[in-house]
Amino acid sequence: GIQGEQGIQGIQGATGAAGADGADGVTPSITLTVSMLAENATPTVTKSGTDAAPTYALGIPRGATGAQGIQGEQGIQGIQGEPGTSEGSSTPIFFTIMPAMWSNNSFTMTDMVIPTPTAVMMYLPIPTTRANYTAFTNAGINITAINTTSLTLTCGTTPTSTITIALLNVAYSD
Predict the structure, then answer these.
(1) What is the pLDDT of residues 35-52, one digit of tens each?
(2) Are 40 and 61 in contact (CB under 8 A)?
Protein backbone atom coordinates (compact mmCIF):
# COMPACT_ATOMS: atom_id res chain seq x y z
CA GLY A 1 0.00 0.00 0.00
CA ILE A 2 0.66 3.61 -0.07
CA GLN A 3 2.60 5.28 2.74
CA GLY A 4 0.48 7.47 4.88
CA GLU A 5 1.02 11.07 5.91
CA GLN A 6 3.46 11.99 8.67
CA GLY A 7 1.79 12.46 11.99
CA ILE A 8 2.04 15.47 14.29
CA GLN A 9 4.98 15.84 16.65
CA GLY A 10 4.45 14.40 20.05
CA ILE A 11 4.90 16.23 23.34
CA GLN A 12 8.38 16.55 24.91
CA GLY A 13 9.26 13.99 27.50
CA ALA A 14 10.40 14.68 31.08
CA THR A 15 14.06 15.80 31.76
CA GLY A 16 16.29 12.92 32.72
CA ALA A 17 18.34 12.65 35.93
CA ALA A 18 21.81 14.36 36.11
CA GLY A 19 24.78 12.15 35.32
CA ALA A 20 27.58 11.40 37.78
CA ASP A 21 30.66 13.75 37.91
CA GLY A 22 33.64 12.56 35.92
CA ALA A 23 37.05 11.85 37.49
CA ASP A 24 39.49 14.79 37.92
CA GLY A 25 41.99 15.14 35.08
CA VAL A 26 45.77 15.02 35.55
CA THR A 27 47.80 18.28 35.38
CA PRO A 28 50.70 17.37 33.12
CA SER A 29 54.35 18.12 33.94
CA ILE A 30 55.54 19.36 30.54
CA THR A 31 59.16 19.29 29.41
CA LEU A 32 60.21 21.40 26.42
CA THR A 33 63.51 21.18 24.55
CA VAL A 34 64.60 23.40 21.67
CA SER A 35 67.35 22.73 19.17
CA MET A 36 68.67 24.78 16.27
CA LEU A 37 68.39 23.26 12.83
CA ALA A 38 70.33 24.13 9.69
CA GLU A 39 69.37 27.23 7.73
CA ASN A 40 66.25 26.62 5.55
CA ALA A 41 65.44 23.30 7.32
CA THR A 42 61.81 22.44 8.00
CA PRO A 43 60.77 23.21 11.60
CA THR A 44 59.95 20.12 13.69
CA VAL A 45 57.79 19.28 16.72
CA THR A 46 57.99 15.86 18.36
CA LYS A 47 55.93 14.68 21.34
CA SER A 48 57.12 11.84 23.56
CA GLY A 49 56.53 10.72 27.13
CA THR A 50 53.15 10.17 28.75
CA ASP A 51 50.00 12.30 29.05
CA ALA A 52 51.04 13.06 32.65
CA ALA A 53 54.65 13.92 31.68
CA PRO A 54 54.85 14.84 27.99
CA THR A 55 58.09 16.02 26.36
CA TYR A 56 57.97 18.32 23.35
CA ALA A 57 61.09 18.70 21.25
CA LEU A 58 61.10 21.75 18.96
CA GLY A 59 63.52 22.11 16.06
CA ILE A 60 63.84 25.70 14.82
CA PRO A 61 65.86 26.51 11.69
CA ARG A 62 68.70 29.02 12.01
CA GLY A 63 67.97 32.25 10.19
CA ALA A 64 69.88 33.34 7.13
CA THR A 65 73.00 35.45 7.65
CA GLY A 66 72.01 39.07 7.36
CA ALA A 67 73.64 41.77 5.31
CA GLN A 68 76.65 43.52 6.83
CA GLY A 69 75.67 46.55 8.86
CA ILE A 70 76.98 50.04 8.46
CA GLN A 71 80.35 50.89 9.97
CA GLY A 72 80.13 52.14 13.54
CA GLU A 73 81.60 55.34 14.88
CA GLN A 74 85.29 55.46 15.66
CA GLY A 75 86.03 54.58 19.29
CA ILE A 76 87.84 56.81 21.72
CA GLN A 77 91.60 56.93 21.55
CA GLY A 78 93.27 54.31 23.70
CA ILE A 79 95.74 55.01 26.46
CA GLN A 80 99.32 55.63 25.52
CA GLY A 81 101.24 52.41 25.02
CA GLU A 82 104.35 51.28 26.78
CA PRO A 83 107.16 53.70 26.04
CA GLY A 84 109.87 52.48 23.71
CA THR A 85 113.54 52.69 24.49
CA SER A 86 116.08 54.81 22.74
CA GLU A 87 119.55 56.09 23.41
CA GLY A 88 119.50 58.29 26.51
CA SER A 89 116.21 56.94 27.87
CA SER A 90 116.15 55.63 31.41
CA THR A 91 114.18 53.20 33.49
CA PRO A 92 110.84 54.75 34.56
CA ILE A 93 110.42 55.97 38.14
CA PHE A 94 107.06 54.72 39.48
CA PHE A 95 105.14 56.56 42.19
CA THR A 96 101.60 56.49 43.57
CA ILE A 97 99.60 59.53 44.65
CA MET A 98 96.59 59.10 46.94
CA PRO A 99 93.84 61.78 46.94
CA ALA A 100 94.80 63.00 50.44
CA MET A 101 98.36 63.75 49.24
CA TRP A 102 97.18 66.66 47.04
CA SER A 103 97.25 70.11 48.65
CA ASN A 104 95.65 73.06 46.85
CA ASN A 105 95.75 71.08 43.57
CA SER A 106 99.49 70.51 43.96
CA PHE A 107 101.64 67.50 44.84
CA THR A 108 105.40 67.55 45.47
CA MET A 109 107.53 64.43 45.87
CA THR A 110 110.95 65.01 47.41
CA ASP A 111 114.00 62.84 48.15
CA MET A 112 113.89 61.44 44.65
CA VAL A 113 116.85 60.57 42.48
CA ILE A 114 116.01 62.01 39.09
CA PRO A 115 118.74 61.95 36.44
CA THR A 116 119.59 65.38 35.03
CA PRO A 117 118.13 65.62 31.53
CA THR A 118 120.28 66.70 28.62
CA ALA A 119 119.27 69.29 26.02
CA VAL A 120 117.52 66.57 24.00
CA MET A 121 115.65 64.88 26.85
CA MET A 122 112.35 65.48 28.58
CA TYR A 123 110.32 63.84 31.34
CA LEU A 124 106.87 62.37 30.65
CA PRO A 125 104.39 61.34 33.35
CA ILE A 126 102.68 58.15 32.08
CA PRO A 127 99.58 56.75 33.88
CA THR A 128 100.07 52.99 34.35
CA THR A 129 96.48 51.72 33.75
CA ARG A 130 93.32 52.78 31.91
CA ALA A 131 91.73 53.83 35.22
CA ASN A 132 94.87 55.83 36.09
CA TYR A 133 94.81 57.41 32.62
CA THR A 134 91.15 58.43 33.02
CA ALA A 135 91.74 59.93 36.48
CA PHE A 136 94.98 61.62 35.28
CA THR A 137 93.37 63.29 32.25
CA ASN A 138 90.13 64.21 34.06
CA ALA A 139 92.20 65.97 36.75
CA GLY A 140 94.39 67.76 34.17
CA ILE A 141 97.68 66.76 35.82
CA ASN A 142 100.91 68.40 34.59
CA ILE A 143 104.55 68.54 35.68
CA THR A 144 105.20 72.11 36.81
CA ALA A 145 108.64 71.70 38.42
CA ILE A 146 111.35 69.05 38.31
CA ASN A 147 114.96 68.85 39.44
CA THR A 148 117.31 66.03 40.47
CA THR A 149 115.66 65.55 43.89
CA SER A 150 112.00 66.58 43.58
CA LEU A 151 109.00 66.66 41.32
CA THR A 152 105.92 68.91 41.52
CA LEU A 153 102.64 68.11 39.78
CA THR A 154 99.62 70.40 39.60
CA CYS A 155 96.06 69.65 38.52
CA GLY A 156 92.93 71.53 37.53
CA THR A 157 90.75 69.26 39.72
CA THR A 158 91.98 67.22 42.67
CA PRO A 159 91.72 63.50 41.77
CA THR A 160 89.32 61.42 43.87
CA SER A 161 91.14 58.14 43.26
CA THR A 162 94.68 56.87 43.77
CA ILE A 163 96.86 57.27 40.66
CA THR A 164 100.07 55.41 39.84
CA ILE A 165 102.39 57.19 37.40
CA ALA A 166 105.57 56.17 35.64
CA LEU A 167 107.94 59.11 35.18
CA LEU A 168 109.92 58.47 32.01
CA ASN A 169 113.03 60.30 30.84
CA VAL A 170 112.76 60.29 27.05
CA ALA A 171 115.30 61.30 24.41
CA TYR A 172 113.95 63.17 21.39
CA SER A 173 115.35 64.73 18.26
CA ASP A 174 114.68 68.09 16.68
Answers:
(1) 999 988 999 999 999 988
(2) yes
